[in-house]
Amino acid sequence: MNRKYNYVLPFISFIVLLGLQLSGFTAFAQGPGPGQRIPLPPIPIKGDTTHTLSKHFTTASAAQKAPDAQGFIQRWLVLEPVKKDIVRNNIFTDNYLRTAFSTDNFSADYTVVPRNGETVNVGNQTLKWYALDSKAFNFNLYHFTYALNQPKFGILVWLVTVIDCPEEIQNVRLAAGCNSGSMWWLNGQEALLL
């Protein structure tokens, strides 16, 4: 063999082995360690994050407001939520609701009409009344509590409205809905228990 090229063979072997080793490190490499992560693209914020009432409600004016064309009542006086230890909806039995509404009540008189901005004590909580018109057909309590930055679950909420009907109307039907449990009074008398 020619002595002139003997030193090139070990050098070429070293370069080939180094190349194989580097490609092996790349193939089996783990990502950067903690604190060295590649920044992720920003996640766009969806929905209202401002906690404002104006997205779903307007402040009720002094002018009267009739129900909408389908008969939905959109004007309500709403009390800030009463915080309760409610972990599941299955506790909403008739007895539980009657007990909760009688003990955590803003008034023993179910014909009392509070005023906008008035505060009342319920248990050890001081809560404020809001006179609001819903922009939707219903009054969404989740949107209300979110706007006030209050708990949205495990709560009791009081709503009051006045319906002025100067004449007697026959065959009127009261329909109400709730995704938890609720009681409804009409002229101080229990009308519905859901």
The major beta sheet can be summarized as: 5 strands, antiparallel
Provide the gyration radius in Å: 33 Å
Q: Stretches where pLDDT falls below 50 for ≥5 residues?
A: 16-20, 22-29
Distance between the first and last residues' Cα: 100 Å
Helix content: 10-25%
Structural class estimated from helices and strands: alpha+beta
Strands, total number: 9
Helix tally equals 3
Query: What is the H/E string?
Result: HEEEHEEHEEEE
β-strand amount = 15-25%
Q: How confident is the prediction overall: mean pLDDT? A: 80
- The backbone outline, from C-alpha atoms, is globular
Q: Care to describe what's here?
A:
- The protein has 194 residues and is of the alpha+beta class.
- Helices cover 20% and strands 19% of the residues.
- The protein is built from 3 helices and 9 strands, in the order αβββαββαββββ.
- Strands 1, 2, 4, 5 and 7 form a 5-stranded antiparallel beta sheet that branches. The protein has a two-stranded antiparallel ribbon with strand order 3-6.
- The chain is globular, with a radius of gyration of 33 Å.
- About 7% of the residues have low confidence.
